[in-house]
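Hello,

Our lab assistant flagged a job as stuck in the queue for most of the afternoon. It eventually completed. Since we weren't sure the result was trustworthy after the delay, we are filing this so someone can double-check. Below is the sequence as submitted and the structure that was eventually returned. Let us know if re-running is recommended.
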Amino acid sequence: MTDWERVRDDFPELQQTMNDERLAYLDNAATSLKPPAVVNRLVNFYQQENANVHRGTYQLSFEATERYERSRELVREFIHAQDQREIIFTRGTTEGLNLVAATYGEQNVRPGDEIVISLAEHHSNLIPWQQLAIKKHATLKYIRLNPDGQIDLDDAQQKITSKTKIVAVTHVGNVLGNQSPVKKLARLAHQHGAIIVVDGAQAVLHLPVDVQALSADFYAFSGHKMLGPTGIGVLYGKQSLLEQMPPYQFGGEMIEDVQLYHSDWDQIPHKFEAGTPNIAGALGLASAIRYLQKIGMRNIQTRDEELMAYLLPKLEAISGVKVYGSENPSQHIGVASFNIGGLHPHDVATALDMEGVAVRAGHHCSELLVHSLGVNSTVRASLAFYNNQEDCDQLLRAIEETKEFFNGGLR
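-- returned structure --
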């Protein structure tokens, strides 16, 4: 059995105080904390192993290349891809999704075609498709959400047609924490000859991910949301699709041969990794994956469910608090978004910060979804496996104190 209090010791940030209060870090959907194993891996590379990859004919470069490519293999294993050539290192989820839109989308979407996304999408999985539709004179269609924030599969069946070329959905929503029925949507997409692109940014810290079981054609995620460094991410793509796609950027590393008026591209994945890659970031991501694997993603999933089952009913029971999304804690994977009476979410977040509670307030880069809730912004508390019940209790107390401070107690 995992000793979760011992796990907390691996995150020194949790041991500090903020505004003379213990820190309850509840902004994990924005970025996760980093264990020393990840930080030390970055330092060790720059101090002991620093060399460019794929280019040098000396031992230090050989070893850096070997470690970098081992990191790629570890990512493949983590998300259960079939081949490590299907793993492309990017700067993050946003770049991965833009890469697909700018290559596969540019190559395959024609005037009159349709792109289908949901109202639950982060802007990173909305704006690239919106702009592609404008550029290609295609139609962008939105799948409705049920009242509890889940994707409406009946509406999806109506929206995904023979004209659909791309379906793009989040795996786990960053506002409501809802898990999309990716496998069912993939089946619908494939029945109509379309491909499915999955934004996995919020899923990889909370759920075991198997891209083959999901039938995902593309799957993008960020290292910094799963204990890794910032500036490193991953795009998984099926080999058959990646091989047909043009490069995303041009320069060094991604070429096979250069002539005066013509160039040939390298094989995948290097075709999509122009220039010097984020070597240290890839090594740090590999350390983060090893840490997660040591704990076990099933154990992490269970821990997350336990914490949300503890927090959500108590949060919903506070007078004046409106919690958005399903009443079922299992439909809030790591995320609970709420508002307090007539208080502005930014005021609430500032007040909670004075009590040592770090949360996010705003539209969370998901304006369409937040507006569909009838508000302009929410307060978002997001949990990770290293949080505990004391963090939840601290949030609940801080909410009560915030109500008292602003309104003398909302009714």
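-- support follow-up --
The delay was a queue issue, not a problem with the job. The result is valid. The chain has a mean pLDDT of 96. DSSP finds 14 helices and 17 strands in the chain.
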